[in-house]
Amino acid sequence: MEPEKQAHTTLQDDAESTLKNVREEDLFTWRAPVRPFKRRDRQFFTTVGAIAILVGLVMFFLEGLLPVAVIAALYFLLYVLSTIPPEEVEHKLTNKGLYFAGKKYGWDELTRFWFSDRFGTFGTELLIVEAVRAPWRLEMVIQSQDKERLRRELEERLVYEEAAPNFLDKAASWLSKRVQLEG
Questions:
Q1: Is the Cβ–Cβ distance between 111 and 90 less than 8 Å?
Q2: pLDDT at 102
Q3: Are 111 and 98 in contact (CB under 8 A)?
Q4: % helix / strand / coil in the chain, to the nearest 5?
Q5: Which of 13, 97, 129, 178 could disulfide-link 113, Cβ–Cβ 3.0 to 4.6 Å?
Q6: What is the pLDDT of residues 50-94, one digit of tens each?
Q7: Domain coordinates of the chain in residue numbers?
Q8: Dihedrals phi, psi of 101, to nearest 5 degrees
Q9: 87-135 per-position pLDDT tens digit
């Protein structure tokens, strides 16, 4: 091996071993529900149920029983997610990465972050971080007073850039504007 390449490899190995030997320090920790939650009323479930029945009937005549079973399962999932409050978990930023509900993601596995809200003006604030491995997008509930501190800490390590909405995001937005499920 050439001396120049050998010196470069040795410097790179030294830098990597130094990073591995650095003690992990907590930068910011918070507890929050594992997912956004909004309790739904009876009118919401009645409206969604009526839509599910109509779509289910059409699908039954076009395709048979399997699509109806899928629609029923999705309705049940919506019911469960809207009636059972989520558990509270701990999220943590450290000098070596991000802990999302106890699972560690190193800074090299994360690409960018941004903030969003769910359920309207007075809804739930979210910190969204994109990852290079599954689940590819981490959504963490945050308190609005923690937003600036989180932004400062994350901007030192990641790019602050909101992802453009994909087809599913656009379709959900279009549908929610045209179909009012709540009064």
A1: no
A2: 86
A3: no
A4: 50, 25, 25
A5: 129
A6: 999 999 999 999 999 999 999 999 999 999 999 999 999 999 999
A7: 42-83
A8: 55, 40
A9: 999 999 999 999 998 899 999 999 999 998 876 655 689 999 999 988 8
